[in-house]
Amino acid sequence: MQHQLQQATVDKYVINPLKSFISNSVMGGIVLLGAAIIAIILANSPWSESFLGFWKNRISIGFNDTVFLDYDLHHWINDGLISIFFFVLGLELKREMVDGQLSGFRNAILPIVVGISGMIFPALIFFLFNGSDTEAINGWGIPMACDIAFVLGILYLLGDKVPVSVKIFFTAFGIVDDIGAVLVIALVYTNEISLWSLGLGLLFFVLLILANKVGVRSTLFYGIVGIIGVWIPFLLSGVHATIAAVLVAFTIPATTKISETGFLSKIKSYSGELNDAESFSGVTLTKKQLSIIKKMKSMTKHATPPLQRLEHSLHPVVSFIVMPIFALANAGVVFDIDFADLFSNNIFFGIVTGLVLGKFLGIFGITFLLLKLKLVKLPKKMTVNHLLGISILSGIGFTMCLFITTLAYDSPQHVTQAKIAIFAASIIAGISGYVLLNRKPKKETARINV
């Protein structure tokens, strides 16, 4: 009998390398960046018209002669596919609130303050540049958001030069940043609202909350009711459908049906039964063995919260399917705009300055002030250089900034100005932050002890 997992040829040369690629936290950011570059190249190539026109193809859902949902492909991606990203984001937010960096007041206070200030300062700077322009001012929410995936990708590329505590701290205030972005989308970038559709969606949302309370743990149930009962009504209501995805995520159970001690005891008992069970001389299993293994599988499922099962299974889907497709559909900027048009208003300067300077002031400036006032302490092993680095890297505002751009502006010129500004700011912030964190600090004591 083999005591080790047998490796077939397909496992060794296909499946295992693919699993390794998908599990690498850096690869998601690299694939996303690659998709964005491909979109920009195609948008400025001889195939530009075909590439950009592809996203205008319409997909509709109807019955007989009645069409219920009729949108172009770009709309389906920005309201439908991207909702999977927001759903996973909602799962992460709930996990952090239940048992993570945002689970207690002492843990959450610094990330919350930094996350909020990191949104306010960029918005204020954008307002200073564009406050007098009634059309341009609609983009004030664009520089508020940072791209957690890209920043974490850079932090992981830096390896041991960035302690785990720094990555956790960034993730914590980055999550607050995401909450702020979701609220801005819900409260600001929402069109005329159909109260009937919204009420229907909220009714099914309450149903999911009740299902959680009475112990329903089927992810299929939450998926069906969430899509048909919550997401579609929100889509038809005028409130952005991504908000429905976040709300549904918060209804997913985050508890287990058995304690860790009870699970270990059960598995040990089943292992003994499996060891004592009569077996065939060949490679197949007896009914008794199959029954025991099925019980072990069921017990493992009971010991894993549905929230974490979904989060774990959907992360690769988001990183390697959803986000690259979103980038292909939204990052294709045609650089046929001349400098006079690019700088015909202050959208470009407002976004670049907001992301690069605003994020720095809101994160580093406020944290440094709180440290000087002895109101907070930096996480263990985190230095001022680390704080500087992640404050600058937070100016990488790709995914969420591009998404808000599509909601803020209707004018193609304004959209192009905003996208070019987002790319410019992200490049400046990414290179500057990486160089700063990659350099060897002169003194290991470059830390504020308060």
UniProtKB/TrEMBL annotation:
It holds the Pfam family Na_H_antiport_1. Keywords: Antiport, Cell membrane, Ion transport, Membrane, Sodium, Sodium transport, Transmembrane, Transmembrane helix, Transport. The keyword Nucleotide-binding does not apply. It is a multi-pass membrane protein. One of its GO terms (molecular function) is sodium:proton antiporter activity. GO terms for cellular component: plasma membrane. It comes from the Bacteria. The chain crosses the membrane at residues 21-43, 105-128, 140-159, 168-189, 195-212, 317-335, 347-371, 383-408, 420-437. It catalyses: Na(+)(in) + 2 H(+)(out) = Na(+)(out) + 2 H(+)(in). The keyword Glycoprotein does not apply. It is found in: Cell inner membrane; Cell membrane. InterPro entries: Na/H_antiporter_dom_sf (IPR023171), NhaA (IPR004670). GO terms for biological process: regulation of pH. NCBIfam families: NhaA. Belongs to the NhaA Na(+)/H(+) (TC 2.A.33) antiporter family. Na(+)/H(+) antiporter that extrudes sodium in exchange for external protons. This is Na(+)/H(+) antiporter NhaA. The gene is nhaA.
